[in-house]
Design a protein that fits this description.
The protein is mainly alpha-helical. It has 4 helices and no strands. The chain has one domain.
């Protein structure tokens, strides 16, 4: 009986329970809206810089297609999140899968960008 009263006192000391809508998320969601604009600018820069040779054209098209896929996966994740937030009939596991696909796509894109920058820096360091 004493343990039950102590537990009740501990619960009462926590204060009032907030409704779900009033709670703040533990982790702020990243702003994914800028990825599409950045990716498009990179694709345009790469296309103009590599337009001289057939191999460069293939590489530019490959990068453009990858950027378009990245943008599509991020857009899909954002629409799934907004549908879930507005209460539409969408399964939570589908939203989570969409978010993970977008996260993996962004991470892969960042790794490719890092490798390209690293390769460029290696070329700049070479002595002629």
């Amino acid at each position: 009986m004493q343990a039950g009263l102590e537990a009740l006192g501990a619960v009462q000391s926590l204060g009032a329970v907030q409704p779900v809508g009033a709670m703040r998320p533990l982790v702020e969601a990243p702003d994914l809206s800028q990825i599409g604009a950045t990716a498009g600018a990179m694709a345009n820069a790469m296309a103009s810089a590599t337009a001289s040779s057939p191999t460069a054209d293939v590489f530019g098209r490959l990068m453009s297609r990858g950027i378009e896929d990245l943008n599509a996966s991020v857009s899909s994740a954002e629409s799934a999140m907004s549908q879930l937030a507005t209460g539409k009939a969408v399964e939570l596991q589908d939203v989570m899968i969409s978010l993970e696909r977008a996260r993996i796509s962004v991470q892969a894109f960042v790794q490719v960008r890092n490798k390209l920058v690293e390769s460029y820096q290696d070329l700049m360091r070479m002595q002629l």
